[in-house]
Amino acid sequence: MAEHDVFVIAEHLEGKLSDVTFEMLGKARSIASAPGGRTVAVLLGHEIIALAEQLGAADQVLYLEDAGLRNFIPERAEQALRSLLQNEKPALTMIASTSMGMDLAAALSAALDWPLIAYCSDARLEDGKIVATSQIYGGKIAVETVSESATTLVSVLAGVFPASEGHADKPAPIQTIFGAANEGRVRFKGLTVPDAGDVDITRETLLVSVGRGIGSKDNIEIVEELANNLGASLSASRPIIDSGWLPKQRQVGKSGLTVKPKLYMAVGISGAPEHLQGMKDAELIIAINSDAGAPIFEVADYGIVGDLFDIVPALSERIAEVRAK
Ligand SMILES: Cc1cc2nc3c(=O)[nH]c(=O)nc-3n(C[C@H](O)[C@H](O)[C@H](O)COP(=O)(O)OP(=O)(O)OC[C@H]3O[C@@H](n4cnc5c(N)ncnc54)[C@H](O)[C@@H]3O)c2cc1C
Predict the structure, then answer these.
(1) pLDDT (tens digit, 9 = 90+) per residue, 223-264?
(2) pTM of the predicted protein model
(3) What is the dihedral of CA 199, 203, 206, 207, to 10 degrees?
(4) Distance of alpha carbon 31 from its chain centroid, rounded?
(5) Residue among 318, 272, 323 at smallest CA distance from 294
(6) Given the CA of residue 211, which atom of ligand 1 is nearest to it?
(7) Whose CA is nearest to atom 19 of ligand 1?
(8) Which residues contact 317 (CB under 8 A, 6 or more apart)?
């Protein structure tokens, strides 16, 4: 009985489940709360029962165990999931809108001939139909889509639901399904992890981020000095990276990295949706911008409206004084 079931395809890399898996699980539980609905986590891999045990927020875990699923190969994952989904026919299947998930969701949609609603920031069950909100044009427009199908796939943006809702103290019942993978035509050769550079901004607790308002590469040193005085690391918006002023590993946002520091100070950053996507969950956001109408102020806890070339050196000096005491 799958009429109200919500399936979540768990995503993992190098022995760790990604945050978005727990974010989807928490959301899935609220959607599947309709009578008869179950939240089912689906995990693909090899010798990763310990990960299956972490998916306790689901009512059940289906663990597709096969040596051929040891590494993520979209073709194999799609084949393994295709028959499972065909048999189970869940009302909704949630897949992360990540580089892995985007491959998988599109392939499954084509193979199963099920509709896929992509870039979703919300999904719900309404009068027996799946209604999902997609962020399109880089998040500038939100579109609500009603699926007319009894089985719908959605790809879910990372960071839109709280991961805390998807964690549980105890494991859920795990059903292990062996031999799910076919040989396929694609082989896994190796994982190339991008060089994190000298600093991994996703792990930093204090970030000072510089945007196009800085004007030139030479000016970045005043923001760097502020970061140093604060004991923070330097990150940036995309134009700074595209100009070659800082390395790619420092980019925050949709096509960069998602950060959740305790403090995020945005200097000369307008707050475009693609930037906000990568930093809006920071615990405390401080923005410095000369334009009082800049969208960054909508997410900032504290805002300073003014010229960064006046504010940043003054702030830097004051922080250095206080820290020297
Ligand atoms: C598919 C896609 C993916 C993208 N991915 C990302 C991403 O990952 N990360 C990202 O950041 N962007 C991304 N973008 C780009 C994004 O849309 C914006 O163009 C970008 O975030 C703008 O960067 P910014 O705020 O630094 O520059 P701007 O939007 O130009 O803003 C500069 C700000 O500085 C302020 N300013 C100017 N002078 C001063 C001064 N003297 N003192 C104080 N303030 C001043 C201005 O008022 C303005 O608000 C993406 C876009 C697309 C289409």
Answers:
(1) 999 999 999 999 999 999 999 999 999 999 988 888 989 999
(2) 0.75
(3) 60
(4) 20
(5) 272
(6) 26
(7) 272
(8) none
